[in-house]
């Protein structure tokens, strides 16, 4: 768990364009497009041991990096918007799943 610093493997300007054009009709398609270009997702395809670790489905837009306290992505940054803070876990043989909804 933590700031694992995984980023999108996609050009900054193209990523910002996709994010600016998201609407109800293309939400899931756009989100799938971006998450399929995310570094952890790409690494999982090449390293089977990473697939032992679970993660909840990403169903929200990238959370990093915004301008100050706004809803606008930082366009001056060289860092591509992404999902940096992640929680991964490995289930034990006798583990039980408990999902706690958070607002």
Automatic annotation (TrEMBL):
A Pfam match: Exo_endo_phos2
InterPro entries documented for this protein: Endo/exonu/phosph_ase_sf (IPR036691), IP5 (IPR046985), IPPc (IPR000300)
GO molecular function list: phosphatidylinositol-4,5-bisphosphate 5-phosphatase activity
Coiled-coil annotated residue ranges, if any: none
Occurrences of domain Inositol polyphosphate-related phosphatase (ranges): 1-94
Biological processes, Gene Ontology terms: phosphatidylinositol dephosphorylation
Name under which the protein is recorded: Inositol polyphosphate-related phosphatase domain-containing protein
Organism, scientific name: Euplotes crassus
């Amino acid at each position: 768990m933590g700031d694992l610093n995984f980023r999108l493997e996609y050009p900054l300007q193209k990523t910002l364009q996709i994010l600016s054009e998201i609407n109800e009709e293309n939400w899931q398609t756009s989100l799938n497009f971006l998450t399929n270009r995310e570094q952890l997702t790409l690494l999982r395809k090449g390293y089977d041991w990473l697939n032992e670790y679970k993660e909840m489905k990403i169903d929200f837009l990238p959370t990093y990096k915004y301008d100050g306290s706004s809803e606008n992505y930082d366009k001056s940054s060289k860092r591509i918007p992404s999902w940096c803070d992640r929680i991964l876990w490995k289930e034990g043989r006798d583990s039980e799943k408990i999902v706690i909804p958070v607002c």
